[in-house]
Amino acid sequence: MTAVAPTLPTERLAAVPGLLREVGDLKRIRVAHAPGSVAQRSFVRAWSALVAGADQARVAAAECAAALAGARLAGVDAAVLLRCGLRADDVVEILGRAVEEVAGGLHPVTVARARAALPDLVADAAGPRPEAPLPAFVRALCCQPRAGATAPGRPRLIVEPPEDHAEHCWTVGVYGALLAEDLGADHGEAFLLGLAHHLHNAGLPDAGFAGDTLLGAHLEPLVERLTERELATLPAALSLRTRALLKRRADAETPVGRAFHAADVLDRVLQVHHHARAAGFTADQALVDLELVHPGPVTPYQHTVLAAAGL
């Protein structure tokens, strides 16, 4: 493991919120050929690989590469490009361009690791999927909504649509792995900790901070008991590694604990920012900032149509 980072990487954290926001938006990207969001399907894919015996560092690097490419390509992933008839080398090149476009604020070692993972990512997309049966908690977390912002003694703030725990856990895992180099953490450990930190919610609906407060002294033993129940469904070696990592959630004194808590709080706050942005969206943002009617040979005609319609 790399050395403990002596200070918080404030310059890095100031540089990456835009990138992390785009990765987090994969919770909201869907495609016609598969159910669930990109983030949810990535959560399932990661656990499938881990349960089948894949190395956690390799899985983490591949998921980070997929997330960075997906930040700009959305649902156009390696599997889609291969099904559309592109050669593997061309797919690696396309994904690499997407990674380069968004990853400038990350640690150079992190970017290099993501680039190096692209051939494996494409090869995995071209090959058969792991056949190991998935633990039940994987599908349960895909269905279990997050509570959102709650506080003791106050009415719940409901935002629609809610994210699910699979989406949150995968995103936290990716954020943690992307920040690991700056915090002296192992990127594979940071990813697995993020991926597993809500195992208990497979059986416990999320009532948020307000509900946790009302559970009082029952909360900690309840979480521990439910977590152990889900850990028992994993292969023995993976279960041992995951159990040991989950103990690092207790504080931010270890490198992997710092990476996890940085990732978790960033995802929770960026999720709230997403809902605030959605509520404040204006037509000008699409028409002017994003050039919804983008330049092309028929643009003058399109502007004429809009003007005539009063739009």
Description:
- This protein has 311 residues and is mainly alpha-helical.
- It has 2 domains: 10-280, Hypothetical protein af1432, CATH 1.10.3210; 284-311, no CATH class.
- Helices cover 62% and strands 2% of the residues.
- It contains 16 helices and 2 strands.
Number of domains: 2
CATH-assigned fold name of the largest domain: Hypothetical protein af1432
Tell me, what's the shape?
globular
**Number of helical elements:** 16
Q: Characterize the biggest β-sheet.
A: 2 strands, antiparallel
Based on secondary structure, the structural category is: mainly alpha
Widest sheet: strand ordering: 1-2
> Order of SSEs, N→C?
HHEEHHHHHHHHHHHHHH
Number of strands: 2
Offer a few descriptive terms.
Hypothetical protein af1432, 2 strands, about 300 residues, two-stranded antiparallel ribbon, 2 domains, 16 helices, mainly alpha
Secondary structure elements and pairings:
Elements: H1 10-15, H2 17-24, E1 30-31, E2 34-37, H3 38-51, H4 56-73, H5 78-83, H6 88-102, H7 108-126, H8 136-143, H9 165-179, H10 187-196, H11 208-215, H12 219-231, H13 236-246, H14 255-279, H15 283-289, H16 299-308
Antiparallel strand pairs: 1-2
Helix pairs in contact: 2-4, 2-14, 3-4, 3-9, 4-6, 4-7, 4-9, 4-10, 6-7, 9-10, 9-14, 10-14
